[in-house]
Amino acid sequence: MTDPVFDAFFSPRGVVVVGVSQDPAKLGYGLARNLVASGYPGAIHFVNPRGGTLLGRPVQPNIPSVPDPVELAVLATPAAATVDALRACHARGIRAVIVASGGFKEVGAEGAAIEAELAKVAAELGVRVIGPNCIGLLDTHVPIDTTFLQPPAPRPGEIAFVSHSGAVCGAVVDYANGRGFGFSRMVSVGNQADLTETDLLGPAADDPHTKVIALYLESVGAGPRFVDVAGRVSRRVPVLALKVGRSPAGQRAAASHTGALAGAESAWDAAFRRAGIQRADGLEEMFDWARALAWCPLPAGRAMAVLTNAGGPGVIATDSLEEHGLALAALTDATQRALRAILPAAASVANPVDMLAAASPQLYAEALGLLLVDAGVHGVIVLSPPPPLYTPEAIAEALIPVAKAATKPVLVGLLGAYLVNKGAALLAEARVPDYRFPEQAASALAALVRRGEWLAQVPQEEGTMGKTRSEAAWETIEQALAAGGGWLSPEATTSLLEAYGIRMPRLQAAGSAAQAAELARMMGFPVVMKVASPDITHKSDVGGVVLDLRTTDAVAAAFEKVTGAAKAARPGARILGVHLQPMLPKGQEVIAGAVRDPQFGAQVMFGSGGVEVEGLKDVAFGLAPLPRAEAEEMLERTWAGKKLRGFRDLVPADREAVVQTLLAFSRLVADFPEIAEAEINPLRALAEGQGAVALDARIRVAKPAG
Amino acid sequence: MTDPVFDAFFSPRGVVVVGVSQDPAKLGYGLARNLVASGYPGAIHFVNPRGGTLLGRPVQPNIPSVPDPVELAVLATPAAATVDALRACHARGIRAVIVASGGFKEVGAEGAAIEAELAKVAAELGVRVIGPNCIGLLDTHVPIDTTFLQPPAPRPGEIAFVSHSGAVCGAVVDYANGRGFGFSRMVSVGNQADLTETDLLGPAADDPHTKVIALYLESVGAGPRFVDVAGRVSRRVPVLALKVGRSPAGQRAAASHTGALAGAESAWDAAFRRAGIQRADGLEEMFDWARALAWCPLPAGRAMAVLTNAGGPGVIATDSLEEHGLALAALTDATQRALRAILPAAASVANPVDMLAAASPQLYAEALGLLLVDAGVHGVIVLSPPPPLYTPEAIAEALIPVAKAATKPVLVGLLGAYLVNKGAALLAEARVPDYRFPEQAASALAALVRRGEWLAQVPQEEGTMGKTRSEAAWETIEQALAAGGGWLSPEATTSLLEAYGIRMPRLQAAGSAAQAAELARMMGFPVVMKVASPDITHKSDVGGVVLDLRTTDAVAAAFEKVTGAAKAARPGARILGVHLQPMLPKGQEVIAGAVRDPQFGAQVMFGSGGVEVEGLKDVAFGLAPLPRAEAEEMLERTWAGKKLRGFRDLVPADREAVVQTLLAFSRLVADFPEIAEAEINPLRALAEGQGAVALDARIRVAKPAG
Which residues does A256 contact at the CB level (< 8 Å), separation at least 6? Predict the structure, then answer.
């Protein structure tokens, strides 16, 4: 399935480093040094016009002279020379090229031009490129190391790391070396002239040594493809991401509540949720999670046991578990009796199990064993500050065989950073996740739980999300675009929503007070009146809405009031009269909105509506089109959605109709990239079985950017 | 000011360890070993009935034989022997005793009885006790170490640590030893039979070496005293706390919205805010903050510079700064020009300043110096993953003199955990805070900013918060208590609130439909009707409230409806008729509530009112009585409070009247510990200058527990 060129990148039969140097301060030296030091079993070739030898190996004067086998080239040549080098690689039969050198778009226009040429030539020749301006890649199991990272190289491991920053790779490798864990593969994608993080997700997951993928992301070019590829990869291998370059929400001029609340961050969150990617808040957290996901079985539930030799750390872990939505397991009587039999009298055999300070390594191992056989325990955190009578390494050694044999996750916290270091190293070597603080162990256990729950619920029905584009709707949009785009008329808005089965109240226009009164009489009281103006979107802001009109006189008076208020508030606006609609039964009012994110396309918002939506921010976002499970989850993430089931004297509303409306709305905006912004506010959910009605809506169309 | 007994604890002229042991596995050995190893300059005495020598020193057979000087005793005797030992200490002239031994209330009733006796005898004799069941205390500057922690002991430092858990002390010391920072004083308070964390705050702050106090808390006995003492201490020395044993809010049966939303956690947060204590989410975070607060000057503002040798770490730091409410400083042209003159052409001289990977230690130092002289920069984060051409220790050495000379905070992130370790140790030795990840540096910088801002705004007018207890109110409460307590009648509630200047609508009772109609006619339409029942608190939940009655007929009909609905919903409830009040002008509705926390007394809640208050949780808590600044801050922390200034078409309301009502309400509940629970819901804030009116309120009184 994966392009065989990735074999040439990760397990080539031969590698040439072009532009090697004798100067240890140069890139071309670091690359050669690491490749040789990695123990790479294939052929290693060096190229430099000066020839000679480097690290005891011959240096070829040019690429054509490189002997077989050679499948991967790593270029350390000056930027200006890379295009020629690329051509020479192609001529030599090389299809995989890493451009480590800098001097491209990161330094300005001139470099950008070279980079564009590099990408163009690579595409023409069918050569795939990682970089430029990257530190390259490594695979610790082949092994191969085409980076110029400071030694020591990372040790073999189960975590694949794909990074938009080479410096972050350097920091992460040094952190991992200090903490005793390793990597399966690591790739720094640099400027991504050709291959992107998305392209490398599949190859990272295909590696049988990879048990988890960690991503450091600054942005992605093709959002929908990233979501699609990552979503498929994360069904096989858990994917974690640290996404940086956060832009606060609501920075844009707000033409709708959705526009004010949505932003790149809400789109990223929605994208990660859709793709099943767990988003970490920082690097340390991401690798805390990664070790657990790489090394532990998934827990079958949320009930955890804590095993400790002191109260304080146990309380910290308990707090932290609860904060993450996990619970302390209720230990069975049998478990408690068995613990009682081996523990001192003053020990606590309820969860957290406190064995007291004198607990021996053997006691740790035995108690852990007892907790693991309790069917109500889904995972265990084992804690030990430097114990007074034993060494942390003795504790670690006793725990390791029990933890490794377990079918439930066991996470350890040897608490400290000095006396515990040897024990911590033993645990890392044995692939038992170990943490410096109880909070980190609890956070990692929660990541395991989320992974298990996501796998259990992830929809397998990927095929059902095809386009459902309505021809009638397209005509409406086409006409609006022909007229220059912008906000649709109320009639066009209604027709668009109705084409997707979204109910709107009958809406009729009146140009005078008398006409309005007559219309209301025919419609039946009470009615609602709204000012009719193509220039006013937030009608209630200008006094342009009046509810519950019960007589023809009241309607006539309201006509003057509404149009007058609108004129006063917006002197330049065109006022066409008013719209009337029957006043509907009471219900719960919510908001559904959509805006288009430049990276991920349409994102849909759901939440508390009304004028206060922006203040309360009781909203959730998802990518359009929404799968049903995700629409349901958006309801559950908001108070607006939760209370549809009723709360105190608030009667239940037609929740199913809200779900259906949200799904239809998400299909509408997914079908038509021409819809730049849309909002139903409020959507009134009537009593159960009575449906939901879009009381007001606005839709803006524009020619799609792409 | 501080009791001189604390000198006997922290800098005694002589110390006796009672119950020393030759067995390295015993407490009595560990205590002796650490005291000797600490280099304590006073007299060291050992007591054990067997006599002999230990660590080359004589062992006295009993306490009376201990020669002068001796001011502090550390007991490692069995629990049952501690009371006699305490008496012997007193007879020997010792007023300060640490009981390290366990076997007290932590092991059950028998131990608890011994502990009670110990406390009683200590109080009788005027001996002060730390413990029992504690690891003791240490001061690294005296130096003295009366703990039995595993060596190595902590190094001298500026952080005082007071802990409810000895095991957490052990973990924290090992962490600090690994990270290269130290402590001024450390105390484990154990079971707190006598001295508590609150008693030790003053002594910790009095130590001239202490620059910051860190607390690990599980609970405090006397909440108001803790808040008072900590509040005074934190004006001098910053105080940080990790509070564990979180109990989720809203667990109690909810008799009011406030009762449902308030909990121990909201009270702790309010207490910490009042006392100026910064609450950390975990141990690592607390010590990340502590190092910065101990070692750095406070920033004059929120504009920060980031100096890095690579883009990725700079982006991470920027994100993190923004997440904490800090900003990137806009560098002056002069700064940018000066940076341009020393940096390579491709470097970025805008903030974050990226010097590129080849940046030398000298360049780091020079660029840092340039950033520090920019008046718009209030603090700097300096980042370096292991650099390719230099050692991290060379970077550290170059940075240290510049950072130490600065009048602005400089926080460093040598990113990694292996190659960077030597550089990190140099920074810690020089008291320059250093972090493994950029996120941690940003979090610590934010803690510095919060400290500076708190010091700038903390009210100096402590005397103005005295009791304002109203006699009229006391009579009302006394009567209700005499009748067994419980919910006050509407009349009593009104009278209580009015005694504190809180406006209520005129409220009149009617026992029949005809009486209600007549009353309404006299009152003037429209009116509001509420069922009158001492047994129904949430009246709207039972259909017991009708608004906007405009005719006598409507009033009469509503009487039947309201009383009928209440009877149907609560068959057992006493229905006395209805209450009528004039319907008020529109406004914004908020909630004010109060409940009594067992640790901290009355906590006041403010937020979004209405039936949805429990769902939206748009509420803030504070301790009663509220200082004005804190009441204002509670408004600013909620959307309900923010929107009082107006938002879109929501007209501004009388915010000042809301503040005054909240202050008065907080005085009421502070004045009367007999008020167990009170709630104004809704409090309607009328248009500006029109005041605020408590539309509905309920108050429950009960004999105070204490």
Answer: A537, A593, A595, A677, A678, A679, A681, A698
Q: Are A644 and A442 in contact (CB under 8 A)?
A: no
Nearest to B270, CA basis, from B251, B294, B292, B249: B249
**For chain A, what's the residue count?**
706
Average pLDDT, chain A: 93
Pick the CATH number of A506-583 from 3.30.420.40, 3.30.1490.20, 3.90.1640.10, 3.30.360.10: 3.30.1490.20
Contacts of B148 in chain A (CB under 8 A): 388
Predicted ipTM of the assembly:
0.89
CB contact under 8 A, B167 and A357: yes
Contacts of A616 in chain B (CB under 8 A): 608, 616, 618, 639
CA distance A542 to chain B (A): 7
Contacts of A218 in chain B (CB under 8 A): 312, 315
Please name which of A358, A244, A134 lies closest in space to residue B352, comparing C-alpha atoms: A244
Task: Please give the full DSSP string across B199-232, using - where no structure is assigned.
Answer: HHHHHHHHSTT-SEEEEEES--SSHHHHHHHHHH
CATH 2.60.40.770 fits A297-457, yes or no: no
* Window from A143-147, A299-303, B538-542, B671-675 with minimum mean pLDDT: B538-542
- From residue B86, alpha-carbon distances to A184, B28, B147 in Å are 62, 16, 19
Cβ separation B171–A386 shorter than 8 A: yes
Pull the structure tokens for residue B199.
Answer: 């008693």
Lateral strand order in the sheet of A53-54: A53-54, A57-60, A43-47, A14-18, A72-75, A96-99, A128-130
Is 3.40.30.10 the CATH classification of the domain at B291-457?
A: no
Given this structure, which CATH class describes domain A588-701? alpha beta
* d(CA A501, nearest CA chain B) in Å: 31
Query: Can you name the residues that pair with A584 across neighbouring β-strands?
Result: none
B chain contacts of residue A650, beta-carbon cutoff 8 Å: 611-612
* CATH code at A5-210: 3.40.50.720
Testing the interface with A: which of B181, B612, B618 to mutate, by most A Cβ within 10 A? B612
Task: Check pLDDT > 90 for residue B253.
Answer: no
CA B695 to chain CA centroid, Å, is: 34
Q: Domain segments of chain A: what residues?
A: 5-210, 297-457, 506-583, 588-701
A5-210 and A297-457 have identical folds: yes
From CA A184, how far away is CA A140, in angstroms rounded? 5
Which of B354, B649, B650, B696 is the mutation pick for testing A, counting most A CBs within 10 A? B649
Size of interface A-B (CB pairs under 8 A): 250
pLDDT score recorded for residue A464: 45
Q: Which residue of B has its CA nearest to A177?
A: B418
- Which CATH code fits B506-582? 3.30.1490.20
pLDDT at A460: 57
CB contact under 8 A, A346 and B649: no
* CA within 13 Å, CB half, A141: 14
Out of B174, B346, B608, name the one closest to residue A418 (CB): B174
Q: Which residue of B has its CA nearest to A390?
A: B25
Which helix (H) or strand (E) segment holds residue B268: the answer is: helix B264-275
Evaluate whether the domain defined by B5-245 bears CATH number 3.40.50.300: no
Contact B416 A174 (CB under 8 A): yes
Cβ–Cβ gap B174/A419 under 8 Å: yes
Residue B248's pLDDT is what? 52
Give the pTM.
0.91
The pLDDT score that the predictor gives to residue A552 is 93
Distance from CA of B12 to the nearest CA of A (A): 26
Report d(CA A420, CA A356) in Å as an integer: 18
The whole-number pLDDT of residue B374 equals 98
Token pair, residue B90, equals: 């007193």
